């Protein structure tokens, strides 16, 4: 399906008068006939607008998933609703990056846990030994 708004170079919010002027200026007779058929009756335009919105959403979704048409489709009717690929990372990729980061931090903590446990036990033992030694030396001296 063609994106008639794009092909006529008018926004989807254009009023009926702007659409009629764009259709009248259109040099392609087949495109002009399609536009007249879609926009001549208010109900047909409403139906076309619903379908246009759905196909536009699908085009945006395809772009976010990295599914764009190849170079040989770029100027074809099949590419009318495809949005140019953006450099924005998809939500899935962001989620994978965040989970990977958390897993890395967990693995690092897990690897150091044994060493930190030994250091903590040694520190606590040394502190208790010193405290006990000071207590004993004060009781013996007294």
UniProtKB/TrEMBL annotation:
The chain crosses the membrane at residues 114-136. The keyword Membrane applies. Keywords: Membrane, Transmembrane, Transmembrane helix. This is Uncharacterized protein.
């Amino acid at each position: 399906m063609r994106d008639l708004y794009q092909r006529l170079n008018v926004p989807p919010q254009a009023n009926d008068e702007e659409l009629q002027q764009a259709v009248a200026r259109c040099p392609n007779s087949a495109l002009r006939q399609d536009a007249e058929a879609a926009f001549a009756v208010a109900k047909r335009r409403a139906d076309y607008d619903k379908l246009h919105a759905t196909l536009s959403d699908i085009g945006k979704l395809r772009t976010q998933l990295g599914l764009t048409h190849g170079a040989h489709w770029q100027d074809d009717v099949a590419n009318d609703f495809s949005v140019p690929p953006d450099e924005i990372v998809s939500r899935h990729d962001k989620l994978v990056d965040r989970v990977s980061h958390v897993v890395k931090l967990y693995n690092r903590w897990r690897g150091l846990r044994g060493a930190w446990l030994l250091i903590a036990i040694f520190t606590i033992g040394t502190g208790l030994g010193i405290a006990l030694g000071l207590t004993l030396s004060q009781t013996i001296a007294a």
